[in-house]
Amino acid sequence: MEGKNEQRAGLLYGVGAYVMWGLVPLFWPLLKPSGAIEILAHRMVWSLGVVAIAMLAVRRWAWIGELVRDRRKLGLISVAAATITVNWGLYIWAVNNGQVVEASLGYFINPLVTIAMGVLLLGERLRPVQWAAVATGLTAVLVLAIGYGRPPWISLVLAFSFATYGLVKKKVNMGGLESLAAETAVLFVPALGFLLWLAATGKSTFTTGGAGHGFLLAATGIVTAVPLICFGAAAVRVPLSTLGLLQYLAPVFQFGLGVVYFKESMPPERWAGFALVWLALSLLTWDALRTARRNRALAVKLLATAAAAPAAATPTPDGAAIPPGAAAPPAGGPAAPTPEVATTPEAATTPEVATTPRTDAPDSTQQKIT
After folding, report:
1. pLDDT tens digits, residue range 22-34?
2. Which of 55, 165, 202, 251 minimizes the number of CB atoms within 10 Å of its CB?
3. Helix or strand or coil: residue 314?
4. Residue 243: what pLDDT?
5. Which residues contact 161 (CB under 8 A, 6 or more apart)?
6. DSSP class of residue 260?
7. Residue 143 has pLDDT above 50, yes or no
8. Distance of alpha carbon 70 from alpha carbon 82, whole angstroms
9. How far apart are CA 174 and CA 49, in angstroms?
10. Cis status of the peptide bond prior to 33, with omega within 30 of 0
């Protein structure tokens, strides 16, 4: 019963995280007349404050000393901070400039871009269905480019920056809260410097926009940290395959807001492009679920074989065990040679399974949707 309650709580945390990420386009327009760069700087500064409070609550500080001493990991954190800066900044700009639908496309195609990067950069091999999904995704981009009259550069930059961010985070291998704390700490000084410069030149909207506007800018830290904390709570309670399905909630909500609430135009060729993207994602999801079931069944079979082999062995008068199917030697005589029998899963022959990059959740990638 306790396990079911934990999974139910994890599912609620996961749904909550992705729904919040999906509804965040409603928040950024409230921050006008602040520009995207100013909003981004406030997001970096206030996020560090919120994350620091969360770190105080959980009392996890040992990782800081380890990170400072590890120059390679510190360098990777700096790269992750740079890529998420591009992602966050462009997303805010897109929402506040009437490009919510194209921004949502970036997170729809992100799993496909992640797979492509896994093949090109990590040498991972794809199964036929995955190749079909990637090819369908490329076709969708071409159709959308025709529909827009230009390449969907907002979608592509968001997808590639977030896929790069996920790849770097995989190399860093830190928890979500610790990683966000490290990234915002790297970005804090330049972001604070930019905000101070705006204030010194009279261009800051934090103080001139009134108390309500200043409060909303400070709330960017909460908007950033709370969904990530919910995602972290979900990641330890539900299977990754479940998170992989939940991740599509965010772009679905964003797309719906763009079409229904912001009333962005959707000509037929744009619908055709999105339909191809959704087809590619359906193929990808079906293949991932099928492969996960196959691997689980194979693991159960190997464990059952390993457990049955020693249990079926027959003791002899001198205490030696005879594998199943071997003849027992006569009393007092030497044991007859017996064929070697594999007694562990590693010794059994298993079908080769193509490795693929993880397409289920943000960083963990799971990926967090901004």
Report:
1. 999 999 999 999 9
2. 202
3. strand
4. 73
5. 83, 84, 86, 87, 90
6. I
7. yes
8. 19
9. 19
10. yes
